[in-house]
Amino acid sequence: MKQIVNRIQAEELSKTPIDNYASAKHCRLSQLVQYNCFESSINELLAKPTYSDNIQTLDFQVNNALKVLQDFQNRVIIADEVGLGKTISTAMIIKELLVRKMVHKVIILVPSSLKFQWQEELRSKFGEEFTIASDPADYKDNDLIIASIDTAKTPRHQLAINKITWDLLVIDEVHKLKNPQTKNYKLVKSMTVKRTIGLSATPVQNNAFELWSLLNLLHPGFLGTKKVFEESYLEDSRGLNLKNNSALKEKLKKIMIRTLRKETKIKFAKRKISSHYLDYSIDEKKWHEQVFSFIKKRYNALQNLEPAGSLKTKGDTDTEDADLSSEDLAKMAKDYKRRGLLTFSLIMLSRQMTSAKYTGIKALERYKLTLEEEEDIRMVDYLLEMGNKVGLDSKIERLLKVLKKIGKDKVVLFTSFLDSQKVLAMELAVAGYSVSLFNGKMNPTQKEQAIDEFRSNKQVLICTDAGSEGRNLQFAHIIVNYDLPWNPMRVEQRIGRVHRIGQTETVQVHNIAVKDTIEAYILDRLYSKLKLFELSIGEMDLVLSQIPEKSSVEKTVFSSYIEQFGDVPKKSKKSIFVEIEAARKKVDEVKAFDTMLFDKDD
């Protein structure tokens, strides 16, 4: 009878919105009831047989999953150190809750760049089909949802989310909710949820007050008021020096699970980086110089565009936006949008020109269709004529030499473009290589077939960046970046397909770049001088998380390159390279603070 009563109490308490746990006594009662209800029933992972053939489950991941299910019924932060597979651990918990029918409506909030990776991991490894929310109706129409947090916090999406009581909320990179003034924080604060799992390798990145804010969101009152927290655990008002460390660590164990690398005794594979620089032929070099000169001219014209100023009359220097007509404001918005789209098209053209010759020609043909001025159209026609006369593709020639040196080992060959994938497949087949293709245009069945072919009887898998999301390719250990993404995280995602837990071979990464191009510039500045390739598994996202949010990394890199080599006046803003270097130093500080909070006592 007592068990039945306890279960009823648990069900009623679990329906309470997270905001209503204002009383510490109420929170503790909820925990005790939930513990009594489920403690005896979860001593093994019933769902494990459904995914054990798809992934290598590690003892600490199984133990963590059981600990969450037994001891953290309402809320927990999984704060395992970088590279220990928090996504997999969390997916094991989600699967167990679904199999046991303990949850029904599940929502996973993630950074936009990770939504497809989460979806693919859950589908291919755990057999769960999650819908990526793109429309407010998706939340009601589907039980299993993945949403970019940037999409979820928009008014229409948040309204739809708040109409639902969620059985489980999962928040990836939960440390980004540390500021109560942000929309991300307010979104989660407004939701009605029964259980919450937060994921973060670095729950504290600057000071201990961030930790208080984060835990006060997920578990109000857990650390007391901000003043009580400061008096109990902090030596100074800046939150940088702790006192009563042991007491705080014991407190955190009740809401956080923290596994350190040294505790797992996992041996992580090493990386060996080889960058192959080459020279263009004379004809190729002339063609690329002419195209880059055209790109510089177009970029410079965009910088001189003054959409807002052109709307003001002479002497009207005090005019505010509020005094403009709705037509004027609409024109301003259109002009700004046009400027952004034109800059994006120049970035894409620049990237495609440093890939295969065929890809560059196709990119110029598409770019020509966007032009209106006769002079610009004639210039592109001239550039197309030059490109079609270039007989050799030096970059492909170098690729074939690199593959010959690699020998018969399996190779994951990455390119960012379908046009390049097409021509590379043809060139490699002619050279005698067995090839499988993987790209975002394929349906799930075709993608699985491509991976199976590569695993069984193909030597080279030619992937677009769709292959860098959520795929486990650790049966291979060699990656070739035929063309290089300008965002370091994209490169890291590529490497992460083979450099992951369970990889037993040294991971070889080959980068191919032409001298005096933007790719070579990025390879030198980001990877050689800043040594980003030397970061351990998972540390790249920690570095990039320290960089202030701004326009896309690609746009920042493009502007930096044009300004350095394109006779364009330099801006006063810090370059992305300076910011990344500062971020690497900041990471060392974060690690030191992290040790104070979470390192196990000797």
Overview of this structure, please?
The chain has 602 residues and is of the alpha/beta class. The chain has three domains: 258 residues, Tandem AAA-ATPase domain (Rossmann fold, 3-Layer(aba) Sandwich), CATH 3.40.50.10810; 212 residues, 3-Layer(aba) Sandwich (Rossmann fold); 95 residues, no CATH class. The chain contains 26 helices and 13 strands. The strands form two sheets. A seven-stranded parallel beta sheet has the order 3-4-2-5-6-1-7. A six-stranded parallel beta sheet has the order 8-13-12-9-11-10, sandwiched between helices. Helix 15 packs antiparallel against helix 18. The chain is globular, with a radius of gyration of 27 Å. The two termini are 45 Å apart. The N terminus is likely disordered.
Domain unit count: 3
Strands, total number:
13
Could you tell me how far the N terminus lies from the C terminus, measured between alpha carbons in angstroms?
Answer: 45 Å
The major pleated sheet works out as: 7 strands, parallel
Low-pLDDT parts are: 1-22, 25-40, 306-326
Q: CATH homologous superfamily of the largest domain?
A: Tandem AAA-ATPase domain
CATH class of the largest domain: Alpha Beta
Mean pLDDT: 80
Taken as a percent bin, the fraction of beta residues is 5-15%
Radius of gyration: 27 Å
**CATH fold name of the largest domain, please?**
Rossmann fold
Read across the widest sheet, the strand sequence of neighbours is 3-4-2-5-6-1-7
Helix coverage percent: 40-55%
The backbone outline, from C-alpha atoms, is: globular
CATH architecture call of the largest domain: 3-Layer(aba) Sandwich
With helices defined by DSSP (H or I, 4 residues minimum), what is the helix count?
26
